[in-house]
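Protocol step 4 of 6: structure prediction from sequence.
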Amino acid sequence: MQKAYLAKTLKGLEEVLATELIALGADNVEIQRRAVAFTGDQRLLYKANLHLRTALRILMPIYQFKAKNPDEIYKAVKQFDWEQYMDIKTNFAIDSTVFSEEITHSKFATYRMKDGIVDWFRDKYNQRPSVKLTNPELQFNIHIAGEQCTISLDSSGESLHKRGYRVAQNDAPISEVLAAGMLLMAGWKGESDFVDPFCGSGTFLIEAALIALNIAPGLYRSSFGFEKWKDFDKDLFDTLYQDDSEERPFEHRIYGFDIDRKSIAISEKNIKSAGLMKYIDLEVRAVKDFEALSAKALMVTNPPYGERLNFRELTNTYAELGTALKHKFTGNSAWVISSEYSLLDNIGLRPSKKIDLLNGSLDCKFHRYDIFAGKRKLFLSKP
């Protein structure tokens, strides 16, 4: 049976996520703000959680109503038949997203929805289910836009960016979802070598390998929210989980460099956890010592930036990256993300593409640089 779903994502990744959903066979795909709506059956819901690289979580709307204030939320929630999805022994949690002038705090909506569910069971059985904030059996989401309220079941549980392979990290690692989205934007399919000269904890390296091999990122996770739903089809999920028919060989190399020995050690731990060491080479190396690769390659990288770092040192680092690209990466394309636009200018190359992205709370630019030999006009005039 076809049902409506909503896949949440990060700012700037909506079109990439929509493309992923269409490839999975989703119907009625519609891009929204930091989300993509779609329809599909239970099989597609399970596949989406397993295979989507740019989704944070996948919600299934179950109840829509209008409410002007928290008390009206309570009344509407108390009228719904909650036994369709849970019973007295089911523990649950609620998260909320509120855009309303009347409901000024998301916690008010959360509390009143919780009260409505609890009182529905109390009135019927003189008992109540429990709220459990960590690892609940059911995770609900209430979204309020003006007077329009939508309650959804969260099929993912923990955010899908938590792949399950990360066992170590350095300061402020890039989100797995953002990394995968950037790689897909850059056109990465595993058809060349790949390099990240600021590899940090190895996120780009791992996500690049997963895309190249077409391995579902959800395979590393221990659980999904839908596994605790009343209609969970274990046989169907096991079949999908064990299906590796779409995986493919990868005949190139992935290279990760970093000046920090600790970062290389962290990358190695995560790559081993993902079972991908045979595809990835790691080396402690500064960007100023970058050497030309023997084969065609794509670069996607997240150089250091932020208030905690020495700006003068960062200026030199970005200049060194630009020098390395100009002299050692000819004939290839490099994609660089940064929240410090002046640092991107210091690379000294004209970007052929600029994309706005959000890395955590930081507004960032994601620039593409096409590195050519000789004069730019001659390069652009080639067929």
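Step 5 (inspection) to follow. The two ends are 49 Å apart (CA to CA).
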